[in-house]
Design a protein that fits this description.
This protein is of the alpha/beta class. The chain contains eleven helices and nine strands. The protein has a seven-stranded mixed sheet, with helices on both faces. Strands 6-7 form a two-stranded antiparallel sheet. Helix 1 crosses helix 4, helix 2 packs across helix 4 and helix 3 crosses helix 4.
Length: 291
Protein backbone atom coordinates (compact mmCIF):
# COMPACT_ATOMS: atom_id res chain seq x y z
CA UNK A 1 0.00 0.00 0.00
CA UNK A 2 2.86 2.39 0.76
CA UNK A 3 4.31 1.87 -2.72
CA UNK A 4 0.90 2.34 -4.38
CA UNK A 5 0.30 5.62 -2.55
CA UNK A 6 3.75 6.90 -3.48
CA UNK A 7 3.52 6.08 -7.19
CA UNK A 8 -0.02 7.48 -7.44
CA UNK A 9 1.18 10.82 -6.04
CA UNK A 10 4.47 10.94 -7.97
CA UNK A 11 3.03 12.39 -11.25
CA UNK A 12 1.28 15.14 -9.26
CA UNK A 13 4.53 15.91 -7.42
CA UNK A 14 6.48 16.24 -10.68
CA UNK A 15 3.72 18.40 -12.17
CA UNK A 16 4.10 20.87 -9.30
CA UNK A 17 7.89 20.77 -9.69
CA UNK A 18 7.77 21.99 -13.31
CA UNK A 19 5.10 24.67 -12.84
CA UNK A 20 6.03 28.36 -12.39
CA UNK A 21 5.93 29.71 -8.86
CA UNK A 22 2.89 31.94 -9.39
CA UNK A 23 0.90 28.84 -10.37
CA UNK A 24 2.10 26.57 -7.57
CA UNK A 25 0.87 29.13 -5.07
CA UNK A 26 -2.61 28.89 -6.62
CA UNK A 27 -2.33 25.14 -5.93
CA UNK A 28 -1.16 25.98 -2.42
CA UNK A 29 -4.27 28.14 -1.94
CA UNK A 30 -6.44 25.17 -2.93
CA UNK A 31 -4.54 22.85 -0.55
CA UNK A 32 -5.02 25.48 2.18
CA UNK A 33 -8.77 25.49 1.51
CA UNK A 34 -8.91 21.70 1.80
CA UNK A 35 -6.86 21.64 5.02
CA UNK A 36 -8.65 24.56 6.66
CA UNK A 37 -12.24 24.24 5.47
CA UNK A 38 -12.75 20.62 4.42
CA UNK A 39 -10.35 18.19 6.10
CA UNK A 40 -9.73 20.44 9.12
CA UNK A 41 -6.34 18.77 9.54
CA UNK A 42 -5.46 18.29 13.23
CA UNK A 43 -7.58 21.33 14.04
CA UNK A 44 -8.27 20.24 17.60
CA UNK A 45 -4.54 19.87 18.36
CA UNK A 46 -3.65 23.20 16.71
CA UNK A 47 -6.38 25.13 18.54
CA UNK A 48 -5.44 23.54 21.84
CA UNK A 49 -1.78 24.52 21.34
CA UNK A 50 -2.66 28.08 20.31
CA UNK A 51 -4.97 28.54 23.29
CA UNK A 52 -2.24 27.38 25.66
CA UNK A 53 0.44 29.54 24.04
CA UNK A 54 -1.65 32.71 23.70
CA UNK A 55 -4.19 32.84 26.54
CA UNK A 56 -4.37 36.63 26.10
CA UNK A 57 -5.66 36.44 22.51
CA UNK A 58 -9.32 36.57 21.55
CA UNK A 59 -11.00 33.70 19.65
CA UNK A 60 -10.92 35.84 16.49
CA UNK A 61 -7.17 36.41 16.83
CA UNK A 62 -6.56 32.70 17.42
CA UNK A 63 -8.60 31.87 14.31
CA UNK A 64 -6.41 34.19 12.22
CA UNK A 65 -3.27 32.38 13.44
CA UNK A 66 -4.99 29.06 12.71
CA UNK A 67 -5.63 30.19 9.13
CA UNK A 68 -2.02 31.36 8.72
CA UNK A 69 -0.81 28.02 10.07
CA UNK A 70 -2.65 26.09 7.34
CA UNK A 71 -1.37 28.47 4.67
CA UNK A 72 2.18 27.95 5.93
CA UNK A 73 1.79 24.15 5.75
CA UNK A 74 0.41 24.37 2.19
CA UNK A 75 3.22 26.67 1.00
CA UNK A 76 5.91 24.44 2.51
CA UNK A 77 4.37 21.42 0.79
CA UNK A 78 4.43 22.86 -2.73
CA UNK A 79 7.85 24.47 -2.21
CA UNK A 80 9.19 21.10 -1.09
CA UNK A 81 8.31 19.59 -4.46
CA UNK A 82 9.93 22.50 -6.32
CA UNK A 83 13.23 21.28 -4.85
CA UNK A 84 13.29 18.52 -7.50
CA UNK A 85 14.47 20.95 -10.19
CA UNK A 86 15.65 23.88 -8.05
CA UNK A 87 19.26 24.79 -8.83
CA UNK A 88 21.70 26.08 -6.24
CA UNK A 89 21.92 29.42 -8.07
CA UNK A 90 18.15 29.98 -8.07
CA UNK A 91 17.88 28.75 -4.50
CA UNK A 92 20.35 31.36 -3.28
CA UNK A 93 18.23 34.07 -4.90
CA UNK A 94 15.27 32.87 -2.86
CA UNK A 95 16.99 32.16 0.45
CA UNK A 96 19.42 34.81 1.71
CA UNK A 97 21.72 34.44 4.73
CA UNK A 98 22.49 37.77 6.40
CA UNK A 99 25.61 36.90 8.39
CA UNK A 100 27.38 33.68 7.29
CA UNK A 101 30.62 35.17 8.65
CA UNK A 102 29.50 34.18 12.17
CA UNK A 103 29.80 30.49 11.21
CA UNK A 104 33.03 31.04 9.27
CA UNK A 105 34.66 32.82 12.22
CA UNK A 106 34.31 29.82 14.52
CA UNK A 107 35.24 27.36 11.75
CA UNK A 108 38.51 29.28 11.28
CA UNK A 109 39.27 28.36 14.91
CA UNK A 110 38.50 24.67 14.19
CA UNK A 111 35.35 24.89 16.27
CA UNK A 112 32.23 22.94 15.50
CA UNK A 113 29.01 24.98 15.19
CA UNK A 114 25.56 23.65 16.09
CA UNK A 115 22.83 25.58 14.28
CA UNK A 116 19.44 25.26 15.94
CA UNK A 117 16.28 25.67 13.90
CA UNK A 118 12.63 24.90 14.54
CA UNK A 119 9.69 23.82 12.41
CA UNK A 120 9.30 27.44 11.39
CA UNK A 121 8.80 28.70 7.82
CA UNK A 122 10.49 26.35 5.34
CA UNK A 123 12.85 24.43 7.63
CA UNK A 124 13.92 22.07 4.80
CA UNK A 125 15.17 24.97 2.70
CA UNK A 126 16.89 26.33 5.81
CA UNK A 127 19.07 23.22 6.01
CA UNK A 128 20.38 23.83 2.48
CA UNK A 129 20.98 27.51 3.24
CA UNK A 130 23.00 26.57 6.33
CA UNK A 131 25.09 24.14 4.25
CA UNK A 132 26.05 26.97 1.89
CA UNK A 133 27.57 29.10 4.66
CA UNK A 134 30.92 27.34 4.95
CA UNK A 135 33.31 24.94 3.22
CA UNK A 136 33.38 22.74 6.32
CA UNK A 137 31.16 19.66 6.39
CA UNK A 138 27.52 20.28 7.23
CA UNK A 139 25.50 17.51 8.87
CA UNK A 140 21.73 17.71 9.20
CA UNK A 141 19.86 15.34 11.49
CA UNK A 142 16.49 14.04 10.38
CA UNK A 143 13.88 11.56 11.53
CA UNK A 144 13.16 8.99 8.77
CA UNK A 145 9.61 8.94 7.38
CA UNK A 146 7.44 5.89 8.01
CA UNK A 147 6.87 5.39 4.27
CA UNK A 148 10.27 4.18 2.92
CA UNK A 149 9.39 5.24 -0.66
CA UNK A 150 8.70 8.85 0.35
CA UNK A 151 11.68 8.76 2.71
CA UNK A 152 14.12 7.89 -0.10
CA UNK A 153 12.50 10.42 -2.43
CA UNK A 154 12.58 13.31 0.05
CA UNK A 155 16.16 12.35 1.02
CA UNK A 156 17.31 12.90 -2.57
CA UNK A 157 15.53 16.19 -3.28
CA UNK A 158 16.57 17.86 0.00
CA UNK A 159 20.19 18.27 -1.08
CA UNK A 160 20.03 21.45 -3.19
CA UNK A 161 23.39 22.35 -1.67
CA UNK A 162 25.15 19.09 -0.75
CA UNK A 163 25.38 18.19 2.92
CA UNK A 164 25.37 15.02 5.02
CA UNK A 165 21.85 13.95 5.92
CA UNK A 166 21.97 11.63 8.93
CA UNK A 167 19.21 9.71 10.76
CA UNK A 168 18.79 10.86 14.36
CA UNK A 169 19.90 7.49 15.76
CA UNK A 170 23.30 7.89 14.02
CA UNK A 171 24.20 11.36 15.29
CA UNK A 172 27.00 10.53 17.74
CA UNK A 173 28.50 7.91 15.45
CA UNK A 174 28.82 10.43 12.61
CA UNK A 175 30.24 13.15 14.84
CA UNK A 176 33.10 10.98 16.17
CA UNK A 177 35.34 11.95 13.24
CA UNK A 178 35.02 15.66 14.06
CA UNK A 179 36.71 15.73 17.48
CA UNK A 180 39.22 18.40 16.42
CA UNK A 181 37.72 19.63 13.18
CA UNK A 182 35.35 22.36 12.10
CA UNK A 183 31.84 21.21 11.25
CA UNK A 184 28.27 22.50 11.15
CA UNK A 185 25.49 20.47 12.71
CA UNK A 186 21.91 21.48 11.92
CA UNK A 187 19.38 20.35 14.53
CA UNK A 188 15.63 20.95 14.56
CA UNK A 189 15.15 21.14 18.31
CA UNK A 190 11.40 21.56 18.83
CA UNK A 191 10.22 17.96 18.40
CA UNK A 192 8.56 16.16 21.31
CA UNK A 193 10.88 13.71 23.13
CA UNK A 194 9.86 10.07 23.80
CA UNK A 195 7.51 9.22 26.67
CA UNK A 196 10.33 8.23 29.01
CA UNK A 197 11.91 11.69 28.64
CA UNK A 198 15.32 10.21 27.84
CA UNK A 199 17.77 12.81 26.55
CA UNK A 200 15.42 15.66 27.43
CA UNK A 201 15.14 18.44 30.02
CA UNK A 202 12.32 20.68 31.25
CA UNK A 203 12.41 24.27 29.99
CA UNK A 204 9.97 27.18 30.09
CA UNK A 205 8.39 27.63 26.67
CA UNK A 206 5.42 29.98 26.19
CA UNK A 207 5.10 30.18 29.95
CA UNK A 208 4.75 26.41 30.33
CA UNK A 209 7.10 23.71 31.51
CA UNK A 210 7.98 21.88 28.29
CA UNK A 211 10.03 18.72 27.88
CA UNK A 212 12.67 19.46 25.24
CA UNK A 213 15.44 17.46 23.60
CA UNK A 214 18.81 18.22 25.19
CA UNK A 215 20.84 16.84 22.26
CA UNK A 216 22.29 20.18 21.14
CA UNK A 217 23.48 20.93 24.66
CA UNK A 218 24.99 17.47 25.15
CA UNK A 219 26.85 17.63 21.84
CA UNK A 220 28.05 21.20 22.50
CA UNK A 221 29.65 20.15 25.80
CA UNK A 222 31.15 16.93 24.44
CA UNK A 223 32.66 18.58 21.33
CA UNK A 224 33.16 22.08 22.79
CA UNK A 225 30.95 23.30 19.95
CA UNK A 226 29.43 26.74 19.51
CA UNK A 227 25.62 26.92 19.60
CA UNK A 228 23.85 29.31 17.23
CA UNK A 229 20.15 29.89 16.62
CA UNK A 230 18.90 30.54 13.07
CA UNK A 231 16.12 33.13 12.77
CA UNK A 232 14.31 32.27 9.53
CA UNK A 233 11.78 34.76 8.15
CA UNK A 234 9.49 34.61 5.13
CA UNK A 235 9.82 37.94 3.32
CA UNK A 236 7.13 36.96 0.84
CA UNK A 237 5.97 33.72 -0.72
CA UNK A 238 8.97 31.72 -1.89
CA UNK A 239 11.55 34.15 -0.46
CA UNK A 240 13.30 33.81 2.90
CA UNK A 241 16.07 35.37 4.95
CA UNK A 242 18.07 33.80 7.76
CA UNK A 243 20.06 35.51 10.51
CA UNK A 244 22.39 33.66 12.87
CA UNK A 245 22.22 34.57 16.56
CA UNK A 246 24.88 33.33 18.99
CA UNK A 247 23.47 31.25 21.85
CA UNK A 248 26.67 30.10 23.57
CA UNK A 249 30.35 29.70 22.64
CA UNK A 250 31.54 28.47 26.05
CA UNK A 251 29.30 25.43 26.68
CA UNK A 252 31.43 24.06 29.53
CA UNK A 253 30.72 27.15 31.61
CA UNK A 254 26.95 26.60 31.58
CA UNK A 255 24.76 24.68 34.01
CA UNK A 256 22.70 21.66 32.99
CA UNK A 257 19.72 22.80 30.94
CA UNK A 258 20.96 26.37 30.39
CA UNK A 259 21.72 26.04 26.67
CA UNK A 260 18.44 24.22 25.98
CA UNK A 261 16.52 26.98 27.75
CA UNK A 262 18.41 29.69 25.85
CA UNK A 263 17.71 28.31 22.36
CA UNK A 264 14.09 27.50 23.33
CA UNK A 265 13.61 31.13 24.40
CA UNK A 266 15.00 32.36 21.08
CA UNK A 267 12.60 30.07 19.21
CA UNK A 268 9.68 31.43 21.25
CA UNK A 269 10.68 35.00 20.42
CA UNK A 270 10.77 34.14 16.72
CA UNK A 271 7.40 32.37 16.82
CA UNK A 272 5.77 35.34 18.55
CA UNK A 273 6.76 37.55 15.58
CA UNK A 274 4.61 35.51 13.16
CA UNK A 275 2.87 32.67 15.05
CA UNK A 276 1.30 31.20 11.92
CA UNK A 277 4.71 30.27 10.52
CA UNK A 278 5.29 27.57 13.15
CA UNK A 279 4.05 24.00 12.85
CA UNK A 280 1.41 23.96 15.60
CA UNK A 281 0.03 20.59 14.50
CA UNK A 282 2.21 18.44 16.80
CA UNK A 283 1.38 17.83 20.47
CA UNK A 284 4.12 19.96 22.01
CA UNK A 285 2.63 19.93 25.52
CA UNK A 286 1.43 16.33 25.80
CA UNK A 287 3.70 15.78 28.83
CA UNK A 288 3.77 17.69 32.11
CA UNK A 289 6.13 17.61 35.11
CA UNK A 290 3.29 16.16 37.22
CA UNK A 291 3.10 12.89 35.25
Amino acid sequence: MQAIGFYLLLPFIYLIAILPYWLIYRISDFIYFLLFRVIKYRRKVILENLTKAFPEKTPSEVKLILSDCYQNIADILVEEFKMIFLTERNFKKRFKVDNPELIERYHSLNRGVIVITGHYCHYEWAASAIAGCSKADTIAIYRPLKNPYFDRFIFKIRLIIPYKLTPDYNTFKVLKKYQNEAFTLNLIADQSPPKDGKGAVWVTFFGRKTLTYQGAEMIAKKWNAVVVFAHVRREKRGYYTMTFDLVCDEPESTLDGDITQMHSSKLETLIREKPGNWLWSHKRWKKSPIN
